[in-house]
Amino acid sequence: EVSSKPLKTTKETHPNLPPGLILDENGKVCKVCNSWADISKIKKRVGATKDTSENQNKKSLVGMGGFATMMNNSNTNTNQGNKIINEEGKEKKEDRLNCPPDNIILGRSTWNFLHTTAAYYPLKANENQKIQMKNLLESLSIFYPCNWCSLDFQKDFKKNPPQVEGRENLMKWLCERHNEVNKKLGKNEFNCEIKNLDNRWKDGPED
Ligand code: FAD
Q1: Which residues does a 6 A CB cutoff place in the pocket of ligand 1?
Q2: What contacts 166, CB < 8 A, 6 or more positions away?
Q3: pTM for the full model?
Q4: Of the four listed, 115, 118, 188, 207, which is most buried by Cβ atoms within 10 Å?
Q5: Above 70 in pLDDT, residue 69?
Q6: How much is the pLDDT for 96?
Q7: Sequence-distant (≥ 6) Cβ neighbours of residue 109 within 8 angstroms
Q8: Strands 91-92 vs 83-85: parallel, antiparallel or unpaired
């Protein structure tokens, strides 16, 4: 069985990096597996001294280049919607809209797409729609860019094949898969009753 345990930095293996960062298959810090908050700690350590050629070397080793710098620049700012408000309460021009996604943005965007797509799936799908939906979900489980997330998702997917008969089944199935991830991350579970799902993903809350 493939192990989905992520490889992480430790003091011993990566003395110049903060411990606990998830690495990709090439041994570099994985952008889509870590949060900006964690990635931005790299610059603090690497950039603690002058940007010597030694430090530049470390940065290229972790594969961050300008990314960690960009993240670190807005480290002390609060992200309010698209605006960045700095500590003095002034709006700053730069934001993270054009940065590569971290695991939080990627995850949130993907769940948004999946739950919304399920909410607009036919009440009773035809054979072709069922096949297309199965293909979409299976492909997602394979290509989801956070490698260790995708391995866990594939395992869960095998144990619980997608329910694609119609929108209600699909929404519930997806809610349960999302709850598996929520549990793994120590988050609250979502109530998967269809009324609750419709309120969240299609109709909006009742006034
Ligand atoms: P999200 O979990 O992104 O949820 C977005 C919104 O969906 C919530 O605000 C809530 O309103 C609603 N919601 C929450 N739960 C449910 C539910 N069960 N059903 C319906 N709606 C719900 N991150 C990791 O760190 N490790 C992983 O292994 C991992 N695996 C992932 C696998 C997949 C397939 C995906 C798509 C994402 C994965 N993520 C993983 C990312 C993670 O699930 C979150 O997206 C990320 O942590 C951001 O969380 P969030 O609090 O913004 O809310």
Answers
A1: 103-104, 107-108, 110-111, 115, 144, 149, 152-153, 175, 178-179, 181-182, 184-185, 190, 200
A2: 121, 122, 123, 124, 125
A3: 0.80
A4: 118
A5: no
A6: 76
A7: 101
A8: antiparallel
